[in-house]
Amino acid sequence: MATVYFPDHLLAYCENQRQVEVHATTYRELVRLLDKRFPGIGRVLSERISVAIDGQICHEPFLEGIGINSEVHFLHPIAAG
Amino acid sequence: MSKMHVSASVNGEPVEFLCEPQQSLLNVLRDELNLTGTKEGCTTGDCGACSVMLDDRLVCSCLTLAAEVQGKSVGTIEGVANGDTLHPIQQALLEHAALQCGVCTPGYVVAIKALLEKNPLPSESEIRYWLAGNLCRCTGYDKIITAVQDVAQQMAKADKNAGEPA
Amino acid sequence: MSEAVNFKYIGTRPVRPDGVDKVTGRANYGADANLPGMIHGVVLRSPHAHAIIKKIDLSQVRLLDGIYAAVSGNDFPEVSSGSMGGEGGGDYKDLAANIMARNKVLYHGHAVAAVAARTRELAVEALALIQVEYEILDPVMTLDAAMAEDAAILDESMFTQGVDPKPKYPSNIASRIEFKRGDIEQGFLEADIIVESEFRTPTVHQGYIEPHACLASINEGGQATLWCSTQGHFDVRAASAKVLNMDLCDIKVIPSEIGGGFGGKTVVYQEPVAILLSRISGRPVKMVMDRDEVFRASGPASASHTRVKIGARSDGTLTAMSCWMAFEAGAFKGSAIMPGAMCIFTPYKVANFYIEGFDVVVNKPKVAAYRAPGAPQAMYACESLMDELARKLEMDPLELRLVNAVEEGVQAAYGPKFNAIGFRECLEVAKQHPNYTRALKEGQGRGVAAGFWFNVGMQSSAEVHINENGTVMVIEGNPDIGGSRASMALMAAETLGVPYEKVRVVVADTENAGYTNVTGGSRVTFATGMAVIQAAQDIISQAKQRAAATWELDEDQVDWQNGHAIPMPGVNADVEPLSLARIAANSGRTGGPLLGRASLNAKGAGPGFSVNIAEVAVDRETGKTDVIGFTAIQDAGKAIHPAYVEGQLQGGAAQGIGWALNEEYIYDEKGVMQNAGFLDYRIPVASDLPKIDTHIVEVANTAHPYGVRGVGETPIVAPLAAVANAVRDAIGVRITELPLSPSRVLESIDGA
Question: Using a CB-CB distance cutoff of 8 angstroms, which residues of chain A are in contact with residue C417?
């Protein structure tokens, strides 16, 4: 099961749970499963968000693979400079 | 007002052009003579990107009226390399990676050449003060200064060798 | 490929491929292009910082001989609200209103109208014939004024985002953000010592030497060609299409050479105006800002106000960190408050933190990215207070940072866990550096500070074409702002095994390169480099197929080494190795030209940490500070061309020193900038600076084939606090507002 960590600004969407376990193989699937558990969070996790899977930051994660023991963190997208 | 007719030498070649009395040398070089190697950074004489030689004097071409160059000789970046060979200053700037965006570089080449003609082996402090009128926002100046120190040594050595009997 | 590798080309310092053109004046920058029949566009700018436009009358100017077109905001299509992407949360509607004011002017210098004329001089004269009626409003020039309850409101439709419940009244505070972890109150209770202070930084400009410049030409079929100086021509295309309601495919953007940007040329100002003027006049239109316009109407970076509080145990272990920070966004929402807030405490392991940030509009030009946007202001505050903490604890400031430094496996304040990073290594190098321990004289001081920037990936494309003699063309879409052609060529040479001198790099326009995000975010060597490497690998795989076909072997029986196809060990084939040149020469019989390509959305950008040591001498009579030594230490992951990496460290240091000591926008009470030129807005000149020593740390980023992190942004982050801490060391007083100008230093010395 992958471990998903929610930052503060997402707690309102996930019943204040800091972390949850999800069995998913891609980011898309992970979002689908989370949205079932926490209706509404799917939209938030699909728009303007970056995700770090095992420490690697992806800008538009959509199809990104999730490992069995992956750690998933969310963060605001960074660009610029 | 009618235009002024000016005859001058640019990079060793005779040139004639017409200009407005208030037109700057920079403007004429870039827009009338198509010598766009000389860059415009400010038009107020603060950045040095438009540095050219007027006879043996280093000037900001943005502060020089085009009409002033009547009968004089103008040296721009386009005249620094010798045929297909770069000037040692140009070579040194390249080898020391002394440019990043490169827009200030033509002004530097002209200003450094003027410095070394007056003062072949300047100290670091002399280099920094001479080049204080040439702004570079990319490099922090470090590699430019090192390149000047290096090329000054090289040119002095070459001059010495040239002066010695074979 | 993080293990030690012997590279043949990577890590060497060859002359850049575009070098000769740049030292001879041949390279063409934004203002260097001309077309037959070309006319010149100039902009009429608002003389007021805050006013309602009652009426604009262009009828007089349109009658003037030699005037070909005149436009105001009314001549542009309505643009609906929509996110431009990027961390600033910029909006296309605001972009359009910034390019040409509609209804309201929001800063002195805001574009109100534009004309195109036979000559630039005539166009400038013609501006006087444009009649604009204004209703002048109170200018809102500072964070304090903008956030005050009775402040004049810039945008009546703006309600603060991120507060609950939704506010009833409009505000100049565009948004509020919050990050927290742990229990901040408990954290401070656990502290043996608590320090707190507040810090302010002024509005500063990127200060690129080349002003914004473009040349637009649109044909009778509505197809536009735009030549311009930009950090990202695909973004210019997107923005121009949006603002003019044109189809993307009707705009071709050719990037000129670029004379500096530092984030400031990721934004579009006059390009859509030039296209519109060209459409109306039927002629090519050139627009070049003058320096005054660059200062008044482009860039700058946010002024900031940050209150920080740090708690620690007596051994230096941090127990709590909190801050309140506000950034000026300028005329429209979208400062770099988000990345600023995300990085302020990132260098440190701390269980309890609380960060509150505000994005605030004021009557100044809309801010643009400036190298590690948000980070210098944020970390100036944090790193200044860390210095005070070290003093209170009587602890070496580097040691204090080592005790708390983040490392691999630690969860960053902004979310994910770090993979391999080089922060501790940078701190260790600093501790051992002779510049950290050499003796200082009376009146001199030393300061250290840490810097951090995320670095980013994003989208890049690259093609590698093999010429018929085996030489290599790399085609990519990132304007070369500081030597990136050289790093692309080095990575292609290394991957293919061909000499660097045989590789040429083309920065292609929007019709000839695959879509590529901007040159910025320290992403080019990392992300576009990765695309170039993958495109070269595509070539290798094709070259192996061609060799296999030539030798009548299976593809998996062929290996690639040192630029040659060879049979795999153990394969019994009596053949000579085939060079890329031989394979290319015979490509006609083996399937046609060799063309490799790659496109990607790069993931795994490696965070960049730095440590700076500043040494200063302060003249107690005049208050003038001289930087007498500066040492920049940074983890580059892998330095592809070390001389250009050093150059990034040195250039960022110089900009940071300018930010710390001299640079600031000075306004009068009407909101008019008083120092819009390089004489009065003083960026560091050669005689202001010492040699800038560099040390490149290389902790490989495992997500990149050669270990690259990206280096451009981080160098500007640490110098502000490093210099401020050195001045504190020299004069014995902490000044909490930048710049540390002579008058401010003198006041502090006299007041002490």
Answer: 52, 54-55, 71, 73
CA distances from C396 to C430, C431, C447, C513, C689 (A): 12, 10, 11, 51, 26
Nearest Cα to Cα of residue C608 among C534, C526, C530? C526
* C387-402 residue pLDDT tens: 999 999 999 999 999 9
Max CA separation in chain C (angstroms): 88
C322 vs C179: CA distance, rounded Å: 10
pLDDT band (50, 70, 90) for residue A78? confident
Please tell me which of the candidates C417, C521, C603 has its beta carbon nearest to residue A80.
C521
Tell whether B18 lies on the interface with C, counting CB pairs under 8 A. no
Give me the domain span that covers residue B26. Answer: 4-79
Domain presence at residue A31: yes
Where are the alpha helices (H) located in C438-523, listed in sequence order? Answer: 484-496
- Å between C700 CA and nearest CA of chain A: 14
Burial C572-607 (b: 16+ CB within 10 A, else e): eeeeeebbbbbbbeebeebeeebbbbbebbbbbbbb
C69 and C97 in a single domain? The answer is yes
Same domain for C398 and C313: yes
Interface of C with B in 680-739 (CB under 8 A): 683-689, 691-692
Partner-chain contact A59 C457, CB within 8 Å? yes
Average pLDDT over residues C408-431: 96
| Contact at CB, A8 and C179, closer than 8 angstroms | yes
Question: Domain containing B99 — which CATH number?
Answer: 1.10.150.120
CA distance, residue A36 to nearest chain C CA (Å): 24
Report which DSSP code applies to C490.
H
Q: Could you tell me if B43 and B98 lie in one domain?
A: no
Please indicate whether, in this complex, the C-beta atoms of C31 and B47 are within 8 angstroms of each other.
Answer: no
Partner-chain contact C603 A57, CB within 8 Å: yes
Q: Which of B38, B86, B142 to mutate to test the interface with C (most CBs of C within 10 A)?
A: B142
Which has more pLDDT, C752 or C429? Answer: C429
C14 secondary structure, DSSP code: P
- Residues with Cβ < 8 Å from C128, sequence gap 6 or more? none
B136 in contact with C, Cβ within 8 Å: yes
Three-state DSSP class for residue C379: helix
Q: Check pLDDT > 70 for residue C87.
A: no
Classify residue C348: in a domain, yes or no: yes
pLDDT tens string B148-160: 999 999 999 998 8
Structure token pair of residue C60 = 């007089």
Q: Which residues face C29 on adjacent strands? A: C257
Selected residues 481-510 of chain C with any CB under 8 Å from a CB in chain B: 481-483
Note whether C353 and C262 are same-domain residues. Answer: no
Contact: B101, C288; criterion CB under 8 Å: no
| A81 within domain boundaries | no
List CB contacts (< 8 A) between A77 and chain C: 85-87
Helices (H), C411-470: 423-432, 434-437
| Tokens found for residue C69 | 């077109």
Measured CA to CA, the distance from residue B133 to residue C119 in angstroms comes to 30
Whether the pLDDT of residue C4 is over 80: the answer is: no
CATH of the domain at A16: 3.10.20.30
Question: B67 with B97, same domain?
Answer: no
Asked whether residue C130 falls in the same domain as residue C270, the answer is: yes
Q: Is A32 on the interface with C (CB under 8 A)?
A: no
Q: DSSP letters of C615-658?
A: EEEE-TTT--EEEEEEEEEEE-SS-SSHHHHHHHHHHHHHHHHH
Choose one of C594, C623, C657: the last residue of a domain.
C594
Specify whether the CB–CB gap between C190 and C313 falls below 8 A. Answer: yes
Q: Percentage of chain C with pLDDT > 90?
A: 96
- Residue A80 within any structural domain of the chain: no
Q: Which residue of C has its CA nearest to A75?
A: C415
